[in-house]
Amino acid sequence: MKIILLSPPYLPEYMRNARCDFVSLSATQWYPVLLGYCGAYLEKRGHAVTLIDAPAHGYDHDMTFSMVKEGMPDLLVMYTGVMSEANDIAFADRLVDETGCKAVFVGPFASIDPANVLSRSSRVDLLVQGEFEHPVAEIADGAAYETIRNLIYKSDGSIRTNEVRPNLTGQQLDDIPFVSQFFNKQLDLKKYKTPSEYYPYMDILSGRGCKWGHCTYCLWVHTHIKGSQYNVRSVANVIDEFRYIRREMPEVKSVMIQDDTFTEERAADISEGLLAAGIKLPWSCYARANMGGDVLRLMKKAGCRNLHVGYESASQTVLNRIKKGVSVEQMIKFTQDAKRAGLRIHGDFAFGFPGETKEDALKTIDLAKRLKPHTAQFQLMIPFKGTPYYMDMAENGWLNDEGQPDMPGFSNDEIRQVAKKAYRSFYFSFDYILQSIAHPYDHVFGKLKTIQRAIPAMFWKKWNV
Question: Full-prediction pTM beyond 0.90?
């Protein structure tokens, strides 16, 4: 089959490839990593695959439409967002009308309320919830719809939901070709950047799922790989991909391991594998703020450069309610240990958790300034349907008409004001200004586009979430 994998166009600087979708203030674009693995698997099975990531490459609707129509696919695989959902459905219908191809919606966002997504489309009859490599391959191979697990489809005027298949095992993940190799053929690597990573960089997954898996607000652990599961590729397979990137993609300056969170055991195994192989390629990963000093030092020795850490809040009451599983004291000690090990930190903080007050939020700003991560993000929480966080907010009447956090003690306007204050307090602090003077390219000249977008967002521009 001729198959096109599509992340459709929407707004400028929109990103749907992360664990939430939003218009990026920092011009960040992660790779479409889940579409990438699907594409690599389909290619291995002999299909002719084209990946189009319209938002990252700046393709508008007309340009993307022309590209798809020129490609005349037999199958269109559409990765949707929440913010862009109406846009995505309408665009898919238009493409099916014009090309006559079969189409399927995929991705964690489509898995939130799959029957609703399908019912709103006039031309798309198929949707895969959860992992989608094998179901999409079965669709491409012509399997009967009723036999394809994870598939939701229209039949005789109704929507039918098939049984859920087990998540892919480590051996099955090893059997998928390297996503970096697929991206190297399909995408312009220079379109992908994030302030916390060397440029250009590469995204990979060494495993799927979250070993912790309890955070109430996380979309992926409630729609993609559910609960406390962490299925991993073999260490040898991951090391081979690092070796491939170093050899075949010399322009890549670092690798971001996009696993939901690196456990201590996994971090140690990968670090020891990289050291044994003599591979010197900087890498980063997601980390929970409770890793020990010994493994952090080992990671640094093995080339780890940056940790993406979800601190979320300075309120222990809030942390307990969202089932973060980490204390403020652990966060502080972890950060001290990581810095002593020589690791950089990108800190993720957020506002709008259930029961959070303005005072709690101001404490979070103070904690961010105290921890002093190298970079920080202060996010407006997005209540995704299907998550316990959304249900908690909805049951208490803490969502406004747009589905955003809006609480009696912490209104949506106040949440937005505090988030702007957080960015100003962190990035205009004396300590950060000193860092910028000491490392002007790292903090200023290498991030001019980010600064250009961030300044209005810190002061007067309303954020799109």
Answer: yes
